[in-house]
């Protein structure tokens, strides 16, 4: 099956580990050239060394919250690989507290990382994507659709990312640019592994993953590769008529379509 990645170039933020790194690996295996982006060079070097066994990959050390980072990332990518076809806005983290415990500074930092960083780099990438069309994918979260208690500010930032995705898809479709989001649920990550080791060190990962308390209809926490599979598909030519969509990757745990 041809995903259409041969000769294409992708930028993936937050890609030194987790979902971003696994997505980069999958795309490179399918023929894409990928620019990894993260703040820490050590993790990027390790990721590049691992992924370069399968094809062309490089990295940019950048903090996507900084104004100059967006143009730096795009310029270095085009200088290195000659074009840009796919942008995956994956940088982010989980910051969730009750409303009364969230400071104004917390709000500003969370929105800057999860929303405005994607705005900046999407703007920087747009002139290149307009040349031949392409795909932008924003990672958000299921809780942005139905925010639970004590989920601020991250649920609001993610909801804003979904709204931005839909509006962008309407504006950019005329250039052949597709814009989608994946709404992440419980997916294995360093943060979840830390909870496992602190809450249930006597359990194996498989046992911890399947605890009833996670309340996942499919009965387990998802793997990073399962999230990367969906992202890789949505950014590929196989999804050429999918735009403005929000796809849950949550094992059925979300309460909204």
Brief descriptors of the model:
7-stranded parallel beta sheet, Rossmann fold, 257 residues, alpha/beta, globular, 17% strand, single chain, two-stranded antiparallel sheet
How would you characterize this protein structure?
It is a single chain. The chain is of the alpha/beta class and 257 residues long. The chain folds into 2 domains: 205 residues, Rossmann fold, CATH 3.40.50.720; 32 residues, no CATH class. The protein is 43% helix and 17% strand. Strands 3-2-1-4-6-8-9 form a 7-stranded parallel beta sheet, with helices on both faces. Strands 5-7 form a two-stranded antiparallel ribbon. α1 crosses α8. The longest helix has 29 residues.
Q: Reading side by side through the largest sheet, how are the strands ordered?
A: 3-2-1-4-6-8-9
Outline = globular
Alpha-beta classification? alpha/beta
* Number of strand segments: 9
Unreliable stretches (pLDDT < 50, length at least 5) are: none
Determine the N-to-C terminus distance.
28 Å
The whole-angstrom Rg is 18 Å
Largest sheet: 7 strands, parallel
The appropriate CATH architecture of the largest domain is 3-Layer(aba) Sandwich
Report the total helices: 8
The helix/strand order is EHEHEHEEHEEHEHHHE
Q: At the first level of CATH, what is the class of the largest domain?
A: Alpha Beta
Overall pLDDT score: 97
Per CATH, what is the topology of the largest domain?
A: Rossmann fold
CATH superfamily of the largest domain: NAD(P)-binding Rossmann-like Domain
InterPro entries: NAD(P)-bd_dom_sf, SDR, SDR_fam
Enzyme class: oxidoreductase
Catalytic activity: (S)-acetoin + NAD(+) = diacetyl + NADH + H(+)
Family: Belongs to the short-chain dehydrogenases/reductases (SDR) family.
């Amino acid at each position: 099956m041809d995903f259409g990645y041969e000769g294409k170039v992708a930028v993936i933020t937050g890609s030194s580990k987790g979902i971003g790194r696994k997505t980069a690996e999958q795309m490179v295996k399918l023929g894409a050239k990928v620019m990894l982006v993260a703040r820490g060079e050590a993790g990027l070097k390790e990721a590049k060394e691992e992924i370069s066994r399968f094809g062309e990959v490089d990295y940019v050390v950048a903090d996507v919250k900084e104004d100059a980072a967006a143009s730096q990332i795009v310029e270095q990518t085009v200088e290195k690989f000659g074009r840009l076809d796919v942008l995956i806005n994956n940088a982010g983290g989980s910051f969730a507290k009750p409303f009364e415990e969230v400071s104004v500074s917390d709000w500003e930092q969370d929105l800057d990382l999860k929303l405005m960083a994607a705005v900046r780099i999407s703007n920087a990438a747009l002139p290149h994507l307009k040349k031949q069309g392409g795909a932008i994918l924003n990672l958000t979260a299921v809780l942005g659709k139905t925010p639970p208690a004590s989920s601020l500010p991250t649920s609001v930032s993610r909801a804003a990312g979904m709204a931005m995705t839909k509006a962008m898809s309407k504006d950019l479709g005329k250039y052949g640019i597709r814009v989608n989001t994946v709404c992440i649920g419980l997916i294995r990550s360093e943060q979840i592994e830390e909870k496992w080791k602190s809450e249930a060190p006597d359990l194996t990962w498989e046992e911890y993953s399947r605890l009833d308390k996670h309340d996942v209809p499919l009965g387990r926490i998802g793997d990073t590769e399962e999230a990367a599979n969906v992202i890789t598909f949505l950014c590929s030519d196989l999804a050429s008529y999918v735009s403005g969509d929000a796809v849950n990757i949550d094992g059925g745990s979300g309460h909204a379509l």
